[in-house]
Design brief:
Helix content is 45%, strand content 20%. The chain is an alpha/beta fold and 413 residues long. The chain folds into three domains: 155 residues, Rossmann fold (3-Layer(aba) Sandwich); 138 residues, Argininosuccinate synthetase, chain A, domain 2 (Alpha-Beta Complex), CATH 3.90.1260; 53 residues, no CATH class. The strands form three sheets. A five-stranded parallel sheet has the order 3-2-1-4-5, sandwiched between helices. It has a five-stranded antiparallel sheet with strand order 10-9-8-13-14. Helix 1 packs across helix 7, helix 4 packs parallel to helix 5 and helix 9 crosses helix 10. It is globular and about 85 Å long. The mean pLDDT is 94. Bound molecules: arginine. Arginine (ARG) binds next to helix 4, strand 6 and strand 7.
Amino acid sequence: MRSTVVLAYSGGLDTSVCLRWLQEKYDADVIAVTLDLGQQDDLKEIGKRALLLGARNHYEIDAKEEFVSNYVHPAIKANALYEGKYPLSTALGRPLISEKLVEVAEKEGADAVAHGCTGKGNDQVRMDITVRAMNPALKVIAPVREWNMTRDEEILYAQAHNIPIKPSRSIYSVDQNVWGRSIEGGPLEQPDTEPPAQVFEWTTPAEDAPDAPGYLDLEFFEGIPVKANGNDMSPLDLIQFVNKFVGSHGVGIIDQIEDRLVGIKSREVYECPAAVAIIEAHRDLEKLVLTRHELTFKAGVEQEWAWLVYSGLWLEPLRLALDQFIDTTQRRVSGNVRLKLFKGGMRVVGRSSENSIYRQGLSTYSKGSTFDQKSAVGFIELWGLQSRVAASKMKRRKVTKSGYPREKAQAIR
Ligand code: ARG
């Protein structure tokens, strides 16, 4: 009996070659699935392409809103940046794509799901883990991992099998959704070389950005942006608007050496205008309303959250537990932040909140201070107590660096 395989199909080179390959090597009926995560591709075209390449059926699933509410919003609350820079745009999309593949596979009674991830990256880990956690009976096929073709060989395979491709775009591997664009491959593999301008699609080159600064006012409610420049917007519209606005000022490019889960270091280039602006603003607002104790502890939680999501463990119970902690902190994270953008630069220039714990009376250097400066003396006395005692001991040079009496240390040596 012919097997049925549900393939995550983006319409690009890898997954187009996969579609053919599954029919050829596995003698499988292929059902192609394309999710709309806000990547701005023409899904109708992609569907036509899938059928042209012999897919039995094509599913087009609009998951944009679900992606924003269930994946991007928790990432905003977590200020999620892997290795301090990457907003996890690709990483957040993978579990949702996997979830939808499983749903279609169950509906169609398929034997397996397939994806176009390579054996060198993080995406295979994210997808395999999520699919297998959701339905252990489904087989996962990753043709690219099995066939071990280079990108050039894929292009040859495509030409030999009448798979239409755009060779100019095919040197790069691009993944995009509403939270960002990831660009890899080709000349970007030289970490010492500036990315060619043509890889960027969402950001204006800083030198061509407007000559006047742009201001972006973001209003947050319980950790989530709800208004941009004074306008109520749906969660999805807001992110799309911010992408355009921030990108037009040349802000949003990330260029970093990244540690992949499988141990490879790679040069990654991203365009994530909305993500960098929203996280910058959100983090700033948190500084206004949360205590230093909350902020310090949350910074550790954020790192762990980003690591779990990057490393494919979206479904890990720890991630859910961290979300509970984060959500508790976010109840007070409501207010406004103003960002100033100018020719590739961005900075927060103002913030306000009903829940602000900033008190000008306490911080002012001018008249009207409510802070009793005399109380600082007693505070300093106690705060520095142990450090002072230790310092005085070391000064007398009677002790080694580790604090051990010199004579005794010598006797032992
Ligand atoms: N390094 C990023 C990540 O692991 C981006 C991966 C991009 N994927 C791609 N197909 N180009 O999340």
